[in-house]
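Long-time lurker. I teach an intro course on protein structure, and each term I like to show students one example going from raw sequence to a predicted 3D structure in token notation. This year I'd like something fresh instead of my usual example. Would anyone be willing to generate the tokens for the chain below so I can use it in lecture? Attribution to the forum is fine with me.
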Amino acid sequence: MRREIVVNATTREKRVAILEDRQLVELMHERPDERRIVGDIYLGVVEAIVPGLQAAFVDIGAEKSAFLHASDLEPDEDDDEDEVTDPNGANGGRRRNRDRSHPPIQDQLSKGQPLLVQVTKESIGTKGPRITAQISLPGRFLVYLPGSSHIGVSRKIAEREVRAGLRRMVREILGDEGGVIVRTVGEEMTKETCTGELRALRKAWTKIRRKQRGVKAPALVYQDARFTSGVIRDLFSDRIDLLTVDSQDLHHEIKSYLGQVDPGGLDRVRLYEDSKPIFDEFGIEEELRRAFRRNVRLPAGGYVVIEQTEALVSIDVNTGRYTGRRDPAQTILKTNLEAATEIARQLRLRDVGGIIVIDFIDMNDEESRQKVVQQMRTLLGRDRARTKVFGLSELGLLQLSRQRVSPSLHQRMMELCRCCEGEGMILASETVVRRVERALDRVAAAGKERGITILTHPVIALHLLEREREFLNRKRASAGIPLELRDNPLLRLDEFRLLAHPAESDVTKKYISSE
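-- Reply from a regular --
Happy to contribute to a lecture. Here you go:
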């Protein structure tokens, strides 16, 4: 499989796309007003302790208090470790085992206590950032754990002998000063490289401790690598065939960074100099437009429908126009396998997390069911975010979970519609007119107004003039007062205003009803 990184940089935005066989699978972006804080280290202040949740809320100087679980107060000494991967290219770290028992949080922390913490998850929606007291400093090949004695190796390094050799090498260099996780890209790491990176990470930790002593909480004491450097550090490995960037300054920055940490990768970095926009050249812009649609077409004619809700993501699979030729079971299996491939890609591209439920087309054959489940597991194995597939339920639903570190692509790049407020539906014109009618009846019954002006969106005004021409005359007769209709494009489609005509001594109209 050919893997590429494509970087587009402008003065207001940097975008990084990951392609697999020329197909977009991940997108990261950064804007000046959207500084990401995952990986940053703060000296915070404990604001509140909630024993019922076994958690504390910590003030780190952000808009919302950060959430700290009891399991993130002490090291998790699992034998093997995954890299905790931020889909936006943030820091490495460790998985936390929340199933183990932990000392009560109320016995470990007190209100007002200063505490050194690191952000592991961005603020999403109404929730504040997620933090841990177990600091991890990522380098290109290693993650240094100053508060632990653990030595781990990324699970993605599969060969047992290689894993054992890396552990031995790190143990010889490390001594008793902290712990280390060897990242996936560290598989071919030499002893000299390991020594040099470990020395740099320990030096960074010394600076953090020194700064911690000189600031008043809450305060930022360490900021993770800049966006581009962080992406190159975490993504650009021997598995990447080519990195293409359209900014000369950024091209120079990337080559300078690689010249220090991985000179062998310099020949895989290319400056794009054509006049055609780089994302158009690689077909990325069109892929991005499709990523915001509910329906995603499959190669054979089927399609999937992706719905993001607050609690979970639901995905429905349909055969669409694909009906096969003879065997219905084979038609269903082919559609489901194509859907599994596309869904795995869309989860990465849209960066959705949490609980995901997929309603595949019903399959009676157990072998077919297992093929689809195995396909999902295999494809999700390429995902940098942690995923877990729970298998098909009795209702034929595939349940899985995906690590959520930052807001999804939709949350980052879209905002709520002012008309439907995120529901995707608005009141029909007929329904709005009936609301206007009822409001007029209430005003007429009060008998206090000399006349009324009805303000509606132009679409509703057109509906009244073309489809309910008798409406105004009928309501004038029943109310016994003058009525006037005006359109106002500033109103929402389902919104209207009733303005009372002024008395002889007044100079302005007044609102008497609105919805």
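Some talking points for your students: The radius of gyration is 29 Å. Confidence is low (pLDDT under 50) at residues 84-95.
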